Amino acid sequence: GVLLTRCRIVALRVGLLVTALWPVMTYLTVRVNPAMFHNFASRPLAWACITLALAGQATLLFGLLRGRYRNALLGSSAFLLGLLAATAVSVFPVMLRSAGDPALLITAFQATNTPGALRTALHWWLIGIPLVIVYFVIQFRVHTGKVHAPREGEGY
């Protein structure tokens, strides 16, 4: 009803605001870290990730316009995944840039641990990721569809 309409309008406005501010934020990020943009231009995986982000944002907006809220949810998830992945691909191997001395930056290769510790982490990851996926699927199924207000006298 009325609440759904209001929420849809707010979601559309926020989606359009994110679409408008995304280039501004990218410009500001490149001002702080110019190497990121140069890396982005030469890495095809970064282009694929940014394409995923663009498609996700378009799916979000069209999903909201057409009342297909599952598409909007999946589109916003794809947007975030694509944006984070494109950023990770563009800054690799630098994990933490030093604001002062460039010699103090931390790369992925410097931050590695012993082979035994990495194997242990991989084993935990192989156990944890399936659990996360199963949890996500269960939550997606349990909370699917629209919530309907209880009739008079139902509930508390």
The percentage of residues in β strands lies in under 5%
Shape: extended
- Give a quick account of the main beta sheet: strands, pairing sense, barrel closure: 2 strands, antiparallel
Q: SSE string, helix = H, strand = E?
A: HHHHEEH
Percent helix range: over 70%
Structural class: mainly alpha
The count of DSSP E runs of length 2 or more, i.e. the number of strands, is: 2
| Structure annotation, total helices | 5
Radius of gyration: 21 Å
Distance, first to last CA: 22 Å
User: What do the pLDDT scores average to?
Assistant: 90
Low-confidence stretches: none
Biggest sheet: strand arrangement: 1-2
What does this structure look like?
By secondary structure, the protein is mainly α. It has helices spanning 2-32, 34-41, 44-66, 69-91, 115-142, and strands spanning 94-96, 106-107. The longest helix has 31 residues, at 2-32.
Keywords:
156 residues; mainly alpha; two-stranded antiparallel sheet; 3% strand; extended
Brief write-up:
The protein has 5 helices and 2 strands; from the N terminus they run ααααββα. It has 156 residues and is mainly α. Strands 1-2 form a two-stranded antiparallel ribbon.
Secondary structure topology:
Blueprint: H1 2-32, H2 34-41, H3 44-66, H4 69-91, E1 94-96, E2 106-107, H5 115-142
Antiparallel strand pairs: 1-2
